[in-house]
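# nightly structure sweep
# worker-07 picked up a monomer target from the shared queue
# config: single-sequence mode, recycle default, output format = structure tokens
# input follows
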Amino acid sequence: MQSKNSKFIIIIAFIAIYVIWGSTYLFNKIAVTELPPFYIAGIRFFTAGVLMLFLAILLKHNLSISKKQFINSSIASFFFLIYGNGVFVWALKYVDSGFGALLASTQPLFVLFLLRLIDRKPFQKKSMIGVGLGILGMYLLVSQQELTTSEGSLLGIFMILTCVLSWSYGSVFVSKVDLPKSFMVSTAYQMLVAGLVLLLISLSFNETWSTPLTWSTNVQISMSVLILFGGIIAFTAFNFLLKVVATEKVATSAYVNPVIALFMGWYFLDENLTTQSIVASIVLLTGVYFITSRKRK
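# output follows
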């Protein structure tokens, strides 16, 4: 009975990281059509950070953090949330949500190159196939004239790729440094730092702030989903899965999320879904599969 329950929880957790994280691109796109990007990201992370800290207190997690751990958390916060997500939301003003998600799926490719540069880790055969397919898929994706002729789209694509590089370096950085033992406490501090910094950036850019009461119903729903589901539920599910199943299986979210984002953007926002985009996504995600399924040495 216990094993059936645990299997059910694992299935629910996978649905959470597949569907919820896949849908965040759509909800960010809805929010950014009405609200300024750094304000959105600041509100989202500060609120999620406060809620996660409150949850950690309820669950009696140790909230203490050393100076070194706080500095490391702040650096991780910059790579993941301040630059990696804050600038990504800004770039969604110029790029379709599904297209942005496909570009984001190249993260395992970037991580592989960074590990090669930093740790001198040699490429395995599967990795080399994955890199080749990943580069081909990216070329097919960004070379579409109908997607790159609109104003600001090339800048949006370039900035998203710098965000992916930022996330990738963040992943390598976090794996090597001292952070609070509780992932919930560590994430809460990262989110609070990011929220405050992004709100300061928003003020410095003279973005217009508004209360949730003045937002449209669609934006209110989108922000609620991003904070509660995208920030807290999916992240908790992600960390739970890292403890109970193989990392390679958890990494499959890297090639499921973009497919969900692509079709949600097409279905709900009438985003352009070209034949070349479908072919590019198959090639690109096959490459990501080869990278994430390689044997760990």
